Amino acid sequence: MRRNPRRREKGLRHPRIQRRHGRRNRRRSRIAKGTVYLYFNSKKDIYLAALKNGIAELQEKTRATMQSVNGIHAKLRAFVRTRIEYAEANRDFIRIYHSEFGNLTKAPASDGDFQNLYLQQAKMLQSVLQSAADSGEIRPVRTDFTAFIIYDMVRGVMTQRLLEWSTGGVEEDIEQLSELIWKGIANVE
After folding, report:
1. 115 and 174 share one domain
2. Cβ proximity of 17 and 30 under 8 Å
3. 59 inside domain
4. What percent of the chain has pLDDT over 70?
5. Of these four, 22, 50, 113, 144, which has the most CB atoms within 10 Å of its CB?
6. Is the pLDDT of residue 10 over 70?
7. pTM score, two decimals?
8. For the chain, where are the alpha helices, taking DSSP H only?
9. Residues spanned by the domain of 36
């Protein structure tokens, strides 16, 4: 039986269902298993809905933070900072996110909704880069290519931090990555 998508979204907003769905959190929330399945067909549906919800939340936080600052340098720093700080605060979610998006050709990452969310994040960055290139704030670059490279660099730092391979603190990693990106695209004229 297919559940209504609106019902699934209502399930995600259920006051006693937490952002990270699953058996452990369902038990902690003291809700019956049957209640969860009123909103979702399967564990996989719960997992995918939670994953989409987390991605949308990260995307919205990133967008809002980037819009709150002026200038491409500050916007890039906001992009890096928001994503790395979100990863630090939501380590379990980011582990799942990276395991699913490590390869966009496998399911569920190959699902159209997930690819759209991925592309929306890159296009948000591409739009900012294009405006900066048009105004001369950065040197002329292929903004589509550059957006994906920056996105992947941030994802790489997030992964290093999750695996505890980084020898620096959060601030140091944010600063080093931000400056590395900036020096690669800054207009040196």
Report:
1. yes
2. no
3. yes
4. 74
5. 50
6. no
7. 0.76
8. 5-13, 23-29, 33-39, 43-67, 72-89, 91-101, 112-135, 143-162, 170-185
9. 1-41
